[in-house]
Amino acid sequence: MAVSYFANNVRKEPLYLNKTYYTLTFTHEFEYSNDSVYFAYSVPYTYSELVEDLSAIEIDPLRCQYSYRKTLCKTLAGVNCDYLTVTSRERKENSAQRKCIVISARVHPGETVGSWMMRGVLKFITDPNNTEARLLRENFIFKIIPMLNPDGVINGNYRCSLAGCDLNRRWKAPSKVIHPTVYHTKKLVKESHEERGVYLFVDLHGHSRKHNVFMYGCHNQKSPEESRLFPYLLGKVSSYFSFDLSRFGNQKSKESTARISLYKDLKNVPNIFTMESTFSGMDFGPQKGAHLTTEDLENMGRDLVRAIAVYSEIYVAPDLLAIHQMLEQGQ
């Protein structure tokens, strides 16, 4: 199959920006007559697959010991929007001091790469045999919302909810009735911050034009480095992540996104990010010139969580020791 994606001659409004739309073309030779063939923009990940993954964690005799599944709310169609709380139940002496890490995905239903990264997050942080995961559970409380827009996923929407809303443009003032998943997620984040403090928030997305995996963060003019350190470190931990592609700003046009809305509401929390994975493939590193497989995306989710362990200095695995020493030396 040959695939091409390019800027065409159809101009976008307003015309003075001189931007155009893009065209996707592909050719496919059908091998069999009277056959049914399905074409997917990216590897699908359905609501049913999420339910199976969450159920597998629940029934695992080890993973269920430190993970708790709960329904955040019902969607407009009456579907459960579930989330997991993951933390250690063994070491209780520091439980009140554990800060909260919130990771979410699939607010845009078509961005299935977000779910594959989320799958890597879930597999890693509930791993009973991994030292890094265990120490993270002993030092943090994870609130994980794997699918913020189940209705959109189930009904095949690319960007919107059943109400026709882009839910990632409703965080500033979400409606409990029309945008229930965003309303209750924002409530969960703010309550967690008031109770123990939010250490990091990451919303997982997909990007249709840029290569690699990268982040959008906010910008503190007085201390610009504070929101850049974690992505910089993540770029050292992961061969998929590009710090150079990451951007930091408080654009007025993005005020209703999760990133900027929560940055303003939580105050003094620098680590609030949108993490974008390419649909197009990699242009650097070992995967240069190739699309990311589902295994690659799961590895990216794992790398995201591993970077938290290094950033918080609770543990540095032997394969990351050189990175930690480099940071200590200010390189």
Question: Can you put this structure into words, describing what you see?
Answer:
- Helices cover 31% and strands 21% of the residues.
- With 331 residues, the chain is an alpha/beta fold.
- The chain has one domain: Aminopeptidase (3-Layer(aba) Sandwich), CATH 3.40.630.10.
- It has an eight-stranded mixed sheet with strand order 3-4-6-5-7-10-8-9, sandwiched between helices. Strands 1-2 form a two-stranded antiparallel ribbon.
- Helix 2 packs across helix 8, helix 3 crosses helix 8 and helix 6 packs across helix 8.
- The protein starts with a strand and ends with a helix.
- The model has no long low-confidence stretch (mean pLDDT 93).
Q: If you compute it from the alpha carbons, what radius of gyration comes out, rounded to the nearest whole angstrom?
A: 20 Å
Give me the strand/helix succession: EEHEEEHHEHHEEHEHEHH
Low-pLDDT ranges = none
Extended strand count: 10
